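Q: Study each token:
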Amino acid sequence: MTAAAALDRVLPLFQVYYDIDREAPAEPFTAEAAFHSHEEQYFLLKSAKYTECDAHEYIFFQTLDHLTLADAQALADRAWEEGLSRAKPSAIHRSTDVALILLADRVDPDAADYIKAQRRSKSYMFLLHGFSNFRVIAIETSSGALSCNRLGKTLRKLFSNINFLE
């Protein structure tokens, strides 16, 4: 399966909860998905609100023929930078998470090692204004091999159910 065909198979998994943008995603990505949540808690009456929080998640998708170490570094830096630029820390901000999903026909071993070593997070005002975490996964569509960082293991569970070898 090619990387473009894999993207067509992956995007419907996110379509239920995320707003998918294939027309004008952030450069250089093929597609992006955004999730926004606002929660409020009340005590008996709606006017007696005692807490509220916002959570956001941005997922960036990229298809490649061959994922090299330089490509992995550049795309990870760009996704993290773009995701952090969209964060709006405030007293009600809980989190703005960033994820990068790389679909490639071939993944170099050093690029896979780089992805596994990714550990990026940011706290805003000592966590009082929330935090941001970075998840990344690379999928080699020719073999079905998955490489992810520690936080990306939730993505690994999602993608392990997809047969990329068809």
